[in-house]
Specification:
CATH topology of the largest domain: D-Maltodextrin-Binding Protein, domain 2
Number of strands: 11
GO molecular function: DNA binding; DNA-binding transcription factor activity
CATH class of the largest domain: Alpha Beta
Oligomer: single chain
Organism: Pseudarcicella hirudinis
Shape: elongated
Distance between the termini: 61 Å
Strand content: 15-25%
CATH superfamily of the largest domain: Periplasmic binding protein-like II
Order of helices and strands: HHHEEHEHEHEEEHEHEEEH
Structural class: alpha/beta
Domain HTH lysR-type: 1-58
Family: Belongs to the LysR transcriptional regulatory family.
CATH architecture of the largest domain: 3-Layer(aba) Sandwich
Protein name: DNA-binding transcriptional regulator, LysR family
C-alpha cells in the first residue's frame, strides 16, 4: 500500500464517480481504477459497489474514508511541523484566551511578534477558562492566557499582567466616582458573576471582595463571558465585578468604578506545554519575555 493509493481512494470516495475523481487527481481513469483494485486486492476487502450507473461505498469503504481523512490530516500536520523545525521563523501558533485578554496583553504582544517574525501566522480562539487548560494539554492550542494558573507539572506558566478589579454598573445607576465608598453599598444589589465551576479560585476572590464588607452577593445571573455580563449590566439586570481592562473595549451604557483600594488583584498568566518542541512557540515566548506589560 502507498499513500498515493489512499489519496486516490479518498478522491473516489468523496465524488463517488471515477471519471470526476480522475480529473481532479490528474490521473487517467484506467490507472485510477487499477490503483483502487490493487488496494482492495491487497487488503482483501471490497471498498466500492459498482455498476454501470452508480458507485457507492461499502461499510468497509465508509470506515476507511473517515480513517484516511484523519491519516492524511496527520501526515499534513507532520509535514507542516517538519518545515517549521527546518525554518524556525515561520509557521503557525494557536492561542486560546479569555475575552478580557484582547483588551490587555494580546494586541501589544501580536504587534511585537509580527514585527520580529512577520511570517508567523496566529490563530486566535476565545476559549472558556474551564476548557483552556484541557486544550493546552491535548495540544489543541499551543499557548493559552488564563486567570488561574493550572497545577500541572507538565505545563509552564508565567504571569504577564496584573490589574485591578472594577465594579461594573448600569450607566443610570445611583453610584458614581464621587459617592462610591466601598462594596458594602452594593449589598442589596443583584449580581452577575461567572459560575463557580468556571474557576473556583477566581470565583472565591470575587466573593471575598464582598465578604470583606460583611455580605454575600445575591447572584441572579451567571455567565462565563465578559461581553455577556456587560450586556446584562447595561440592561439593568444587575451589577458585576470584572477586570478593569474590560472598560477599554466597551462602548455600552455601563460605568466602571475601579477598585483601587482593595488587596485583590487579578492576574493573567501565559501557559504552555513543557514538552512542546514547536520552534514557533519558542519564538513566541521569546517575544513575550521581551515585553513589559502593566503590573498594577
Amino acid at each position: 500500500m502507498e499513500l498515493r493509493q489512499l489519496k486516490y481512494f479518498l478522491g473516489v470516495a468523496e465524488d463517488l464517480h471515477f471519471s470526476k475523481a480522475a480529473e481532479k487527481l490528474f490521473v487517467a481513469q484506467p490507472a485510477l481504477s487499477r490503483q483502487i483494485q490493487q488496494l482492495e486486492d491487497e487488503w482483501g476487502v471490497l471498498l466500492f459497489e459498482r455498476d454501470k450507473r452508480n458507485v457507492k461505498l461499502t461499510p468497509a469503504g465508509e470506515f476507511l474514508k473517515e480513517e484516511v481523512k484523519k491519516l492524511l490530516n496527520q501526515v499534513e500536520n507532520i509535514k507542516k511541523r517538519t518545515r517549521q523545525i527546518q525554518h524556525g521563523e515561520e509557521g503557525e501558533i494557536r492561542i486560546g484566551h479569555p475575552g478580557s485578554a484582547v483588551y490587555s496583553v494580546i494586541p501589544e504582544l501580536l504587534v511585537a511578534l509580527n514585527e520580529k517574525y512577520p511570517k508567523i501566522k496566529v490563530a486566535l480562539g476565545e476559549i472558556l477558562e474551564v476548557d483552556l487548560v484541557k486544550s493546552i494539554q491535548n495540544a489543541s492550542i499551543d499557548v493559552g492566557f488564563i486567570r488561574e494558573s493550572p497545577f500541572d507539572n507538565n505545563l509552564s506558566s508565567k504571569v504577564l499582567f496584573r490589574e485591578n478589579f472594577a465594579l461594573v454598573i448600569p450607566d443610570n445607576h445611583w453610584l458614581n466616582e464621587e459617592n462610591f465608598e466601598n462594596m458594602g453599598q452594593l449589598k442589596n444589589e443583584s449580581f452577575i458573576l461567572p459560575p463557580k465551576h468556571a474557576g473556583e479560585t477566581y470565583y472565591n476572590v470575587l466573593l471575598g471582595i464582598c465578604q470583606r464588607e460583611d455580605f454575600l452577593p445575591e447572584i441572579m445571573f451567571e455567565s462565563n463571558f465578559g461581553a455577556t455580563i456587560l450586556r446584562l449590566v447595561e440592561h439593568n439586570l444587575g451589577v458585576s465585578i470584572l477586570p478593569v481592562s474590560y472598560k477599554y473595549g466597551s462602548n455600552l451604557k455601563v460605568r466602571f468604578l475601579e477598585l483601587k483600594n482593595i488587596p485583590e488583584k487579578t492576574e493573567l498568566s501565559m501557559v504552555w506545554r513543557k514538552d512542546d518542541n514547536n520552534p514557533v512557540l519558542k519564538s513566541f515566548l521569546k517575544v513575550a519575555n521581551m515585553l513589559t506589560f502593566g503590573m498594577d
